[in-house]
């Protein structure tokens, strides 16, 4: 793991050979200049031959061939080291992607994604990874294509593992904005679909897991009851449609915790009507059970503990007789 990260930070590319070639050329020129003290100094034998050939133009062609070395000496960045407009190294982003890329497909798949998350010190199933996938606009769960990875790194302004880690606090804060969270919420539905299978609705278990995940930072009061409803009615709920998913966010924002302002006449999915009926029945049963428990507790108290007033009267009567006797 450490070797992979090290390789990303210090890529062994053609840059080394170019720099070495340039350095040797520069050293060669410097040596000839330093040894003779200048161009007017008597040249060596090869140089004398070049001088004698100046009249027919042969030397001029040789000088033209050597001139491309000059830009490298002047410090001009090579193509592999070019930065984008924001100062990010495209080469480092590409090398980082290659650390986790699948051997047979130009993408980071499940195994590479686990290693990537491990190097980032995050759990693949936690909210930060969902937010990162949102920023990368990943089309499929457990997969980053090269384009998604490169464009995602550019979007969050990071070209290294350390850079990505340092952006998490900002990304989490960004996800709390009303419009941004709505975009993240809708992205999560598409992210959970199996694109290769052509799915158009989420499996019930996956939808429940994604609802818990996407509401990590701000959990609606009604969420757990909604998820209990989905879990307890497996036969009637096989999948969650996009409309149901999107409307649930509106439901959490428009309907109060007591469900008193819910109306079946409004354009809610029929599943919400069933849920509200189920939830109100559940609350009614809980209230009845609580009332029965209180009554039962009251009856037990009456049997075990006689009224305090009768006990006091009896004690007072005995006390009077005792004092009267004395």
What are the salient characteristics of this protein?
single chain; two-stranded antiparallel ribbon; disordered N terminus; 65% helix; mainly alpha; 16 helices; disordered C terminus; 326 residues
Provide structural commentary:
This protein has helices spanning 2-9, 15-36, 45-52, 58-66, 69-73, 90-100, 110-120, 127-136, 146-156, 161-174, 178-192, 204-214, 223-232, 242-254, 270-304, 308-325; strands spanning 107-108, 144-145, 201-203, 239-241. The protein has 326 residues and is mostly helical. A two-stranded antiparallel ribbon has the order 1-2. A two-stranded antiparallel ribbon has the order 3-4. Helix 6 crosses helix 9 and helix 12 runs antiparallel to helix 13. Mean pLDDT is 77; it is low at 1-80 and 319-326.
Set out the fold topology.
Elements: H1 2-9, H2 15-36, H3 45-52, H4 58-66, H5 69-73, H6 90-100, E1 107-108, H7 110-120, H8 127-136, E2 144-145, H9 146-156, H10 161-174, H11 178-192, E3 201-203, H12 204-214, H13 223-232, E4 239-241, H14 242-254, H15 270-304, H16 308-325
Antiparallel strand pairs: 1-2, 3-4
Helix pairs in contact: 1-6, 6-9, 8-9, 11-12, 11-14, 12-13
Gyration radius from CA atoms, angstroms: 38 Å
Sheet with the most strands: spatial strand order: 1-2
Q: Could you report the average pLDDT, rounded to the nearest whole number?
A: 77
Question: What is the total tally of β strands?
Answer: 4
The number of helical segments is 16
**How can the largest sheet be summarized?**
2 strands, antiparallel
Cα distance, first to last residue?
96 Å
Give the percentage of residues in beta strands: under 5%
Helix and strand content put the structural class at mainly alpha
Share of residues in helices: 55-70%
Task: Detail the poorly predicted runs.
Answer: 1-80, 319-326
> What is the molecular shape?
elongated
Order of helices and strands: HHHHHHEHHEHHHEHHEHHH
């Amino acid at each position: 793991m450490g070797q992979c990260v090290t390789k990303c930070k210090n890529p062994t590319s053609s840059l080394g050979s170019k720099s070495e070639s340039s350095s040797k050329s520069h050293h060669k020129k410097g040596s000839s200049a330093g040894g003779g003290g200048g161009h007017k100094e008597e040249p060596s034998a090869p140089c004398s031959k070049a001088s004698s050939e100046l009249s027919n133009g042969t030397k001029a062609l040789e000088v033209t061939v050597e001139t491309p070395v000059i830009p490298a000496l002047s410090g001009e960045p090579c193509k592999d080291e070019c930065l984008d407009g924001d100062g990010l190294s495209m080469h480092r982003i590409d090398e980082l992607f290659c650390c986790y890329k699948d051997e047979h497909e130009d993408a980071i798949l499940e195994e590479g994604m686990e290693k990537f998350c491990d190097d980032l010190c995050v759990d693949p199933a936690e909210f930060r990874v969902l937010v990162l996938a949102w920023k990368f606009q990943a089309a499929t769960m457990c997969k980053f294509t090269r384009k998604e990875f490169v464009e995602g790194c550019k979007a969050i302004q990071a070209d290294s593992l350390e850079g990505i880690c340092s952006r998490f606090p900002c990304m989490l804060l960004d996800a709390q904005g009303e419009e941004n969270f709505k975009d993240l919420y809708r992205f999560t539905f598409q992210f959970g679909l199996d694109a290769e299978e052509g799915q158009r609705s989420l499996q019930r278990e996956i939808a429940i897991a994604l609802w818990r995940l996407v509401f990590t930072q701000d959990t609606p009061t009604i969420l757990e009851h909604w998820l209990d409803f989905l879990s307890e009615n497996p036969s009637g709920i096989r999948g969650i449609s996009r409309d149901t998913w999107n409307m649930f966010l509106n439901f959490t924002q428009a309907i109060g915790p007591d469900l008193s302002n819910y109306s079946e006449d409004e354009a809610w999915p029929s599943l919400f009507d069933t849920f509200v009926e189920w939830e109100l029945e559940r609350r009614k049963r809980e209230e009845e059970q609580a009332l029965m428990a209180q009554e039962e507790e009251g009856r037990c108290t009456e049997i075990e503990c006689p009224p305090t007033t009768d006990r006091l009267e009896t004690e007072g009567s005995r006390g009077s007789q005792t004092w009267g006797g004395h």
